[in-house]
Amino acid sequence: MKKNKVLILRTAGTNCDYETQSAFELCGIAVERVHISVLIENKSKIFEYDILVFPGGFSYGDDVASGKVLSNEIKNKLGSEVRKFALSGKPIIGICNGFQVLVKIGLLPDPELFTQVSTFSHNDYNKFECRWVYLKTGNKINNESNCIWTNKLPTIVSLPIAHGEGKFIPKNKSILNSLNKNNQIVFRYSSKDGNIPRYPLDPNGSVDNIAGICNKKGNVFGLMPHPERYIFHMQHPSRKNFTGKNHGWGKIIFQNAVDFVNR
Amino acid sequence: MEYTANCKIIEILELSDEKLIELSNKSVLSLSFEEMKKIQGYFRKLKRNPTDVEIETIAQTWSEHCKHKTLTGVVDYTELIPLKKGSFDKLPVSSRNKIEFLKDDKDYVQYEKKERTYNNLLEETIFKATKELNKKWCLSVFKDNAGVIEFDSENAVAFKVETHNHPSALEPYGGAATGVGGVIRDILGVGLGAKPLANTDVFCFGDPNISDSKVPYGIHHPKRIAKGVVAGVRDYGNRMGIPIVNGAVYFDDGYVANPLVYCGTMGILPKNKIEKKVIFGDLILLVGGRTGRDGIHGATFSSVKLDKKSDVNAVQIGNPIVEKKVLDAMLEARDLNLFRAVTDCGAGGLSSAIGELGEKIGARICLDKVPLKYFGLSPWEIWISEAQERMIFAVPLGKKDKIIEIFKRENVEATVVGEFTNDNRLVVLYDNNIVANLDMEFLHNGVPKPVRSAIHKIKEEKIQESIKMNYLEISQTLKVLLADLNVCSREWIIRQYDHEVQGQTIVKPLQGNCIEISGPSDAAVIFPYTIIKDTKKGIVLSNGFNPEYGKINVYKMACSSIEEALRNAVSVGGNIEKISLLDNFCWGNTNSPEVLGSLVCVANACYDMSKAFDVPFISGKDSLHNEYSTSDGKYSIPPALLISAMGVIDDVANTVTMSFKNTGNKIFLLGVTRNELGASVLAKIKNIRIGIVPAVYPNESKEIMKKIYLAINENVVESCHDCSEGGLAVAISEMAFSAKKGVQIYVDSVKTETNMLTMSETLFSESNGRFIVEVTHENETKFREVLKGSIFSEIGCVTDDENIIFESEKNKLKLQENSQDLLKIWQSTINW
Amino acid sequence: MFKIEVFTKEKFKNSKGELVLSDILSIGVRTILKVRYSPLYVIDGNVNYSEVRTLASELLSDKITETYVCKKCIVEDTVKNSKRDVVFFDDGEIPPPVGVCSTIKIWYKKNVTDPVSESILKAIKDLGIVKEFKVKRVGKYYLYGKISRITLHNITAKLLVNTLIQEYMVNGIYS
Prior knowledge:
Chain A is α/β, with parallel strands linked by helices. Chain A has helices at residues 17-26, 36-41, 68-77, 79-87, 97-105, 139-144, 173-181, 249-262; strands at residues 5-10, 30-35, 51-54, 92-95, 118-121, 129-136, 156-163, 167-170, 185-190, 210-214, 220-223. In chain A, α3 (68-77) packs across α5. A seven-stranded mixed sheet of chain B has the order 11-13-10-14-12-15-16. Chain B is globular, with a radius of gyration of 27 Å. Chain B starts with 16 loop residues before the first helix and ends with a helix. By secondary structure, chain C is of the alpha+beta class. Chain C has helices spanning 15-26, 49-60, 115-126, 149-160; strands at residues 2-8, 32-45, 66-72, 86-90, 102-108, 133-145, 166-171. Classes of the chains: A alpha/beta, B alpha+beta, C alpha+beta. Chains in contact: A-B, A-C, B-C. The interface between B and C is medium-sized, with 25 and 14 residues.
């Protein structure tokens, strides 16, 4: 049997690749961190892999705007391959800078369309912030969303964020409506009890408190929080165990995708 | 020797003594008269004048920044110790001639005079302690870019702290950013390269609320400096993907013109990659950023006092992404054994980096091969430029293609610029012409040792008049303390740093019982699970820093900083038997005997404490001449000794945080509370000028530190926090408000040295060696067993009502505060 | 030679402008009511209309929150002298800095490292435009509100520019 493999796409300024690799490895899957220049030289190499990861970091320094230079590069050099990968139904995740890239190349919210219809701007509080937040998944999402990454999560989870440009802005009302209608909004910032949060629990002022979205099919997932930073319960600031096991919420997210490709 | 039009001959053979000094000053060489004389003698023997490249090379290599002439030089030291009244008559007649009468504020005081000559101050104090302690887990100390200790049987951890003060004063953003970049390169260049796991930062600024008119002309306002420095550290650290996990900020008007910016990096490397070796025939590979005119004379400039006409070229702007690419590629090259040595281009640029690597064998470099940012640089400028993000590798000929291929794949420029030779000479070429040809021995060991005199007078300390306050005054004082610039929350700064990137920060700089609120951590713990698979071990990082104490007693300042660094590490679960220390001296102008005297006294304190706590120093750095002159006079900074601690923790599961955990748990105070309010925060806000500065009692506190480690590993400690600035009252408040809990404290139960302390003295004394520990009822017996023999007492319990209560029956006083109100006060001071 | 100036659309927050406004308030100036920041890129190279258009729309601006104006410059010293610039094209939306305001332009001196310009050069290559380019980045601040010459100078000197590494130009509308 062919062994499944994860591709972590890295480039100048990628900096969450090691911990993302560890997270997948702890879920029992092989991982390779591959530099974009290698992939551009051999474009079909991407199809050797079963999960594609756009990790966090500051790709090319986030110069001009977050993820801008990298998404420009991917669109021009790897666009059709990445789109084909997404349409094949294989899992793709973009974390933080990776989410910004997925949105700016237009792989989210709709890889069919492959056009940018939403964007990110600076946090409402005008500064980079690293802190933990509550995220509401909502039972409705759990039952009705197709997102393969967020199965088995409870209604409220906590994960850390670390970003300066995390305010998600859809182009217009109809984009937002369709995200809602199709249950594509997987994570929303929330208060501890699931209500509308205020700063700092709403860290960036995202429209509709959006923290993470997926495509309609549910295989492509992007989120600003960092699930790879909450693999062990010890990584939580209050160091309590919320999962009932020795792991954190982030582990469940990665395990979902691994289980999906191992089916 | 032929010369090219690109390089100038510097006429020195016939120069008079006066002209020699003039030359040194005019060209920002920062060489002393004796040094210029030595250089003149060297070239007289060669019967030729030096080139500009040669004289610049010598100036860089001999700079204070690279050679640490003061700390390794000869010092004639005199210490004056005040005699207690009446003790003169009891002295034997023979020793009475050692007594001097000196006028203090008002009275004449008798001082006992002690004299000692140091041939090498550093080797006879700090380094000596390390040698005497001879820890086998210290793998590389005081020789490489950073100190290295054992992590586990296969891996080691390296730690280095640097300063970037002068550049940060001129251009806060760029100066601080390149400070971070520089110390990260130190870690990339330790051994054969370590992977950075964490950064630390400590800043000293002037009062950010000072009026413009009090800021000297040509100096940025402290608030602009503070904001610029934080932004610079943030942008470089975040882009490098290295979490900034520990630090401190200290505000004092002594730093208005000379802010201090300390940056530290800790990294991990395999034990078999600690040694560098350069062999005849190895190629010199220059990797990373291009060379421009930036940062020319940084090394020599750092020993020049700041004034209005500071050299503009000393400013550097960094590009973190270039450095990140170098990091990514070089670790791969390291693991493939593609090079034999590496070092960073820091102060002195190529001249220092290549000069150091080739010190024992010789090197030959072609400057025209160095990739430039733009045309028009003279050879000497290329040679000493401090352009950022560059590293030098020694590569065996056969591995050249492979290593260049790896760098190329990551879009990193890598160029062979020369080779290592075996003639013990440093030969520099430009367009096939020799522009420098120097003897390595002269270059590295030729610098004359200066002889400096130093004097230090220890001030007599007296207990202040008894401080009595009613409950309203205590309440008011507690709030003012919590809002004080040197006590208040640093959250505004810390949250701008990605302190969790790499996912390994398991004891975070901010921590609380829920994610909404947070208190100040004593130390950080990194769990390097992404690098060392299946490890349970961790690395604790902490610091101790208290320049305020140094205003009265620098010896106690040093001891307190060392003890505080250890205390902080122990509070989260550090094992004092596996902790190492770094020293960073930032001092004023050490040409003044008094300023140098205080430095010698502090070096002695470091020796004493290192021995007493059985904790070795593994690396250090100094930044001297932090002085600014205007027409009104000279401003020298208050002496600042930063002690940074790094320790290895056997099991990261056995670490604790500082916020209270559960209602009903008991609270214990470990250690003795003494009447030590000299230079405390209370003394500052109440304008009390006298008082005893907190001393360190090593035997007493070492014992307690060992027992806390045992207790934490027996799993009987729920939370732990040390008492520092602001004393017991501040520490208790922090533990309570970060947990959204209340607390009931019986002040009468606190173990004090005498019964003479008032309630406010007990609450605000800053005695060292004290910890607050939370224990459950079930674990109390076990806890008491572990602590048996040490001084400690139960002082209260955790409550559920968010009220912080301090009560004393003896003083008939009861203080009650809402913990969330105090939190808000603590958080609101720095919120820019 | 071209100048591309990128504006945040009026209905979106201009983060850097807000930060500068709060700094201005913190030094006691209360008459400035709004600050907008615009990056201005000076593109020096042999480029054609469609290439500049691609640069402006694909790389230098955000499709949703930003708008841009591109000007062709005739005068050599482009940053300081803009009187003879000719509007080359824009994206059809009216750029927001409308009304009377003072402006401050700040840019790095020659030979000072500018990482952002380096990234832009890389990105231009990714767009398939393989030509020799120079990119100079200028920060432009629009200050709305009454202000005196001295105050405008103070804001520039104390908060925005470091003359060791930067040059600047102020165009004040004084009260």
